[in-house]
Specification:
This protein is globular. The protein has 9 helices and 5 strands. It is 59% helix and 11% strand. The two termini are 30 Å apart.
């Protein structure tokens, strides 16, 4: 549908005013909010994610598109909620305790929202217990953790241990500059993501 393609195009250009206006128009045309979400906002962010992965665009471009995505998403959220339409599942993310780096984590959050997940971002310097308590309270299917310092990586293991201790079926995915697939295996995490695009792929597979 033409209007949905236009929303996707303007989202890719990072034009939040146009995305806001066209999303409003699509709602007034009585289009299904889930169709608007899937075929314009998510479709556009998927293209942005692919381009970012291939280094065709850079972080400022992604942030501009994310701002445009939120301009549409904020209008759709109440409509989706009133129809009882939920996303692909809840995901809790944060930077582990002792670590104040959050650019990578924020980007993962943007990409997950753009892919249709309900993201609960706990921010940075998050204690292990808070990850697990929030995931349980919110009925989240997955915890995503990031670390940029080798000294804080050990806190990832504490979170995994807490999840496993409860025999919970919550999945755990980790990422960050010093983190590796080997480290993920060593601490018993379910997956390791090397960048934001890969994180979305891993989360989709796990959920």
């Amino acid at each position: 549908m033409e209007i949905l393609n236009q929303i996707s195009e303007y989202l890719q250009q990072g034009d939040d005013d146009k995305v806001f206006a066209l999303t409003k128009e699509a709602i007034e045309q009585d289009l299904n909010p889930k169709v608007i979400l899937d075929n314009s906002l998510i479709a556009g962010m998927n293209i942005i994610g692919e381009k970012f992965k291939k280094h065709e665009i850079f972080l400022p471009d992604v942030l501009m598109s994310a701002k445009a995505m939120y301009a549409g998403l904020d209008q759709l959220k109440p409509l989706l909620a009133s129809k009882g339409i939920s996303g692909l599942g809840k995901v809790v993310i944060g930077t582990v305790q002792g670590d104040l780096h959050d650019i990578g984590k924020n980007l993962v959050g943007i990409m997950l929202k753009g892919a249709g997940f309900d993201v609960i971002d706990l921010g940075k310097d998050v204690p292990p217990e808070k990850f697990v308590e929030t995931a349980k309270r919110e009925n989240a299917k997955l915890i995503g953790m990031s670390a940029l310092l080798t000294t804080t990586m050990t806190n990832m293991k504490k979170v995994v241990d807490l999840v496993r201790k409860d025999n919970s079926d919550i999945k755990v995915i980790i990422g960050g500059a010093p983190v590796s697939k080997e480290f993920a295996d060593e601490i018993g995490a379910d997956a390791y993501a090397y960048d934001a695009g890969n994180a979305v792929e891993c989360v989709k597979e796990l959920i």
